[in-house]
Amino acid sequence: MKDITTNPIERLQSDMAEFAKERNWEQFHNPKNLVMALSGEVGELAELFQWLTPEQAENFPAEKRQALEHELADVQLYLLRIADRCGVDLIAACDEKIAHNRAKYPVDKCYGSTKKYTEL
């Protein structure tokens, strides 16, 4: 396990790699399998919100808060594991994607609109 002063993304990726190695799960943690697992976890996250009204979703029920935290953590951890296994610097990829989206959706054309960039 890395020192806790390390980059939190790298620390989590290291912790996940160690967790898998200790259990001999690396053989199962190929990108395809990890994406399938991530998809399942996203489904579990969606299930928590499935029948909530928009107002209830904004004020998520306190009695389900721990379940929400666990599902969000599952999604994040699988995403980090996929990035690690694929050699993707997730922070750099996110920074690049935000810059790309800023160019694709200029404020003066999309402010307050839900239109896709091809419709602006």
H-E string: HHHHHH
Main beta sheet, described?
A: none
Question: Taking all residues together, what is the mean pLDDT?
Answer: 94
**CATH homologous group name of the largest domain:** MazG-like
Helical run tally: 6
> Structural class from helices and strands?
mainly alpha
Would you state the CATH class of the largest domain? Mainly Alpha
Principal-axis shape equals globular
Radius of gyration: 18 Å
CATH architecture of the largest domain: Orthogonal Bundle
Please report the total strand number as a whole number: 0
> What is the number of domains?
2
Which residues form runs of ≥5 with pLDDT under 50?
none
Keywords: Hydrolase
InterPro entries: dCTP_Pyrophosphatase, DCTPP
Pfam families: MazG-like
GO molecular function: dCTP diphosphatase activity
Describe this structure in words.
Keywords: Hydrolase. This is Nucleotide pyrophosphohydrolase. The structure is a single chain. This protein has 120 residues and is an all-alpha fold. The chain has two domains: 1-87, Helix Hairpins (Orthogonal Bundle), CATH 1.10.287; 89-120, no CATH class. 67% of the residues lie in helices and 0% in strands. The model has no long low-confidence stretch (mean pLDDT 94).
